[in-house]
Amino acid sequence: MRYCALQELQPAMVLGRAIYGFRGDLLLARGKELDHYFISRLGELGFPGVYVEEAGFEEVDPPEIIDGSLRASTEVLLDECLETLTKIAPSSQQFSGSLSESLNSHPELKKAIPIGKVRNTVKQIVQELLDQFATQLPCLLLKAQSRYQVQHAMDSMLVATLLGINFRFIYRELHQLALATLLHDVGKTALATENEPNIGPDHPKYKEHPTVGGLLVLHSGDDFYTECAAIQQHHEKQDGSGFPYGLKSEGKSPVKGRAYSTGSIYRLAEIVSVADMYDVLTSGTYQPPLSPEQAIEQLINRTPSEFNPHVVKMLASVIQILPVGCQVRIKKSSDSHLRYSRGVISKVNPNSPHKADLILTHDP
Ligand SMILES: [Fe+2]
Ligand SMILES: [Fe+2]
After folding, report:
1. Residues 22 and 130 in one domain
2. How many angstroms separate the alpha carbon of residue 203 from the centre of ligand 1?
3. Same-domain status, 233 and 145
4. pTM of the complete model beyond 0.70
5. How far apart are alpha carbons 232 and 111 in whole angstroms?
6. What distance in Å separates the CA atoms of residue 300 and residue 306, rounded to the nearest whole number?
7. pLDDT digits over 266-312, tens only?
8. What is the CA(235)–ligand 1 centre distance, in A?
9. Would you say residue 106 has pLDDT above 90?
10. CA of 274 to the centre of ligand 2 (A)
């Protein structure tokens, strides 16, 4: 199979991967032949493209980073959690006073996140990544814009956890990092109102979402201080120009043992921040989507002012910039005959995220 962008989809093409909708329900099964109606529905749901089966690409099998059913059940759990928050979160005005007071006067908010269930799911995902010896992200993070919030949380968590594994974090820290990343934007849902369901960067309350989200997680169980700090600081920038606290960082490696100093960004937050921004840039929510390579380039350009250079450097070795199933055009090659050829990535090189096997499709 190969990846096909939405605008290139044609009737009679055959779907290579099943498409799931809200609550993990199956929308289109693998093997389904597309027609004009299905193609326009995919566009309405906000899919940038899909995998299609095609003669000549039978051997191309884009790997999934975790089992599809585990992904689906995690997304359902998060969907339920956000839905509960939407129902019971008080209006944003009530959050504008003291946040702790809001939580005390609305004790039901402390139970909005089923933290025990979330923690168990996160542990399963971390274990699956460790069992597979996963150290790289070999696939595109395809998401439907209609399900952006949940899928952004999920995909950012996978990227952050892979970073944590590469930094050789211990189990406990991997669980903390994964949970914090999965819930890093719950504050947006808590601040949303019926009139303003989306808290984007232009919303006056946007800069409060890290603080609110962190507090919600902190109060949803015992001993979630680490996760709370990582959530509350995921929009801080290395040079102090971030929010909500304007914390700074010396840009040291976030490896275990780095001492915490007052007024500086917590090391797990630096990882959440990079994973979050990588997913934002590649998903095309606020701007046209960037390729994995373009997103990494942009993150590199934004170090050391915004992001921790050690984390971005690690990201560059974690992300497979030539994902299996994607089309590429050769700009430079030691073999001049290959220049300007196009092809589909058929296999990645586990030893180098920048090398891959290619099936040539267009030879000038
Ligand atoms: Fe955020
Ligand atoms: Fe985010």
Report:
1. no
2. 12
3. yes
4. yes
5. 19
6. 10
7. 999 999 999 999 999 998 888 888 999 999 999 999 999 999 999 99
8. 6
9. no
10. 10
**Residue 62 belongs to a domain:** no
- Tell me the CA–centroid distance for residue 102 and ligand 2, in Å: 24
Where a domain ends, among 30, 53, 76? 53
Domain annotation covers residue 63: no
Does residue 60 sit within a domain? no
Residues bordering ligand 1, an ion, CB closer than 5 Å: 185
Question: Residue 141: phi, psi to the nearest 5?
Answer: -95, 80
The 10 Å CB-count burial string (b at 16+, else e) for 289-326 is bbbbeebbeebeeebeebbbebbbebbbebbbbbbbbb
Task: Examine the domain organization and report whether 146 and 287 are in the same domain.
Answer: yes
Ligand 1 centre to CA of 155 (Å) is 14
Domain range enclosing 346:
327-362
- CA of residue 185 to ligand 2 center, whole Å: 5
The answer to whether 235 and 243 have CB atoms below 8 angstroms apart is yes
Q: What is the rounded (10 degree) CA torsion for 167, 172, 178, 182?
A: -160
Taking the C-alpha atoms of residue 328 and residue 274, their distance in angstroms, rounded to an integer, is 26
Q: How many domains does the chain have?
A: 3
Average pLDDT over residues 311-337: 89
